[in-house]
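not sure who needs this but someone in the group chat was asking about Mini-circle protein from Streptomyces cyaneogriseus subsp. noncyanogenus so here u go. i didnt clean anything up, its just raw.
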Amino acid sequence: MTTTERRTPAPAADERTMLEGWLDYHRHTLAHKCEGLTDAQLRTASVPPSELSLMGLVRHMAEVERHWFRRVLAGEDAGPLYYGDEDPDGEFHPTEADTWQEAYTAWQGEIAVARRTAAGFVLDDVSRGKSRFTEEPYSLRWIYTHMIEEYARHNGHADLVRERLDGATGE
């Protein structure tokens, strides 16, 4: 696995560049937290009874990217990747058959689609679809801000999971 390079956005960047830069920084941070671990370690829950694992977080963020950029922003009818009626939190329940390569590829694929989708909108444009949480449309600015918050929160979880696995700490 290669070392993930993270860059903070330029302090005087314009708003869009700043938002996209911080979102990418947090995406890279999650990838960095997963580097150098085996599939078994990536599937390992942090501290029972919690089911939270690094692979589960990556699968969750693939779902989050898919939800906000495909379903909400673009209004696509994009079904779930990992969850369903039988397991509404399925992304957090990787099995021994689930691999890092599959989870990482799905996550990176959703990030690529998110970037392409967002490129067709300006920050003040509102979404074509609706969230499952409200009928209100969302601006791209709101979605970027929410995604940064979502990654930042889960990167905090990833810090704790990684430290529990092998003692690695750091930003």
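also The radius of gyration is 16 Å. if thats useful
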